[in-house]
Amino acid sequence: MTTTTRASDAADPAAQPDADDPSEPATCREPTPAPEPASASDRDPRLDAGPAQGPGSGRDPGLTSAPAERPGSGEETALSTGHAPEPGSGKEANPASGSAQEPGSRQESGPDSGPAQGGGSGQARDCSSAARGPAATGSGAGAGAGGVRPTLVTRELLLRCATIVGASASFFLLLSVVPLYAERSGASGGAGLASGTLMLATVCGELATPRLVARYGYRRALAAGLVLLGAPALVLTASDGMAWIAAVCFVRGVGFALTIVAGGALTATLIPAERRGEGLALAGAMEGVPSFIALPLGVWFAAHVGYTAVCVAGGLLALAAVAVVPALPGHAPAGDGHKASVGVLAGFRTGALARPTAVFATTALGVGIIVTFLPLAVPSGATGLVAAALFVQPAASTAANWFAGRSGDRHGSQRLVLPALLLSASGLLLTALTGSAVAVLTGVALFGVGFGMAQNATLALMYARVPESGYGTVSALWNSAYDAGMGFGALGYGALAAATGYPLAFTLTAGLMLVALVPALGDRRRPSVAAR
Known about the structure:
This protein has 15 helices and no strands. It has 532 residues and is mainly α. 59% of the residues lie in helices and 0% in strands.
């Protein structure tokens, strides 16, 4: 469940001149042929300032060939430095038609190939693998030389998946167990206080993590998150006092925030930009599968082997994942520490990031509602229907997430955002027919498809609109939208249902979700340079 923003030009790497990535050895780069002539309207003025600086200067030649921004879209100009146009927008570089081609780029062929990728674009982590980096939009299916798509599954990505599985299994194994333990302590409202403290700490931690990542790097932030998530679980049952339980939940919430924000930004750097959507779907599956298994398993184990054993198991799952962290990259190629990062609050004020964030937060409302209130809304005897619905919804989301990743890489993620919103609202509307098992199952399936598409499309789109130093902010914005949307959805729907009843509350909430058509349509009318 991932962000970077810019508070000022001094704090925004996208507003500064691009720099060569010193981490990429010159021997990994392919020879750079002379660029084709480009019209003045298609060139970034900085391209005419002279040749790209050499290694160690901080300038990546693959990040300097974005077309100039059109007047009147200043917010996107700051975000789009170093990005190629999004396929399907009509602005792709096409040597055959005489438009500009990036220096050192390779021409692609085939219907599914995206914009040509520069031989020096992105950060080459392995001379034998395709270049990675922020220069692509994350929604084009560009390929390497000869039309071959870059490798998606690498050793580093597999190691990162191990940390995803460890953190997700630890979190979800205890997600329902800790509230049960709190209720057993006898405190009034103990379950709600435990869950509320956990989510509050998670959201607060998500907003603070990008600055920590910029200062200390991916590895340290991720390792610290895994330790904070796992170590407190080992001692949770040392006391059954509510203050102790709340304190443990708070520390674990901060740890979980570090793992998903720092880890999410790190994941984006390990995925070839041409296959970003597919890679994000793979990472989402690595997080989703443990949640399907661990959530019910934790409650079962607590009933049969006791709370202490489950808490220790949850703690060890997170701590074991720390072992692979040293093999992961430590820093994004941002040249100036925390000064090169962007503030999360500024990200909320930046339309190119705020619009997809708002759409995704709106779809996340429905997740909180379905998970919390569907068991109460359907007839009391329909326990089998509830179990089936709560399986169908995440299963549909996972499948749609993968579809959106594959489709977005080939045809552009932006075009999926509006259909995702409409499908989510339609599914919630159909779920209002709580007396019909067919309607409920169809409704949650429709909602799941829409939500899964929104998950992938919004995240890929946001990553495409920032340089790599902004990945932490994108991860924080997206994850805070997820958690806040779920929380507000559950709270708001509960108050609404108390006054109107569950079916009408489902209907009204579905209509309310359509308010997000404003940012969704606005984003289609005002795409960033990265999207063009």
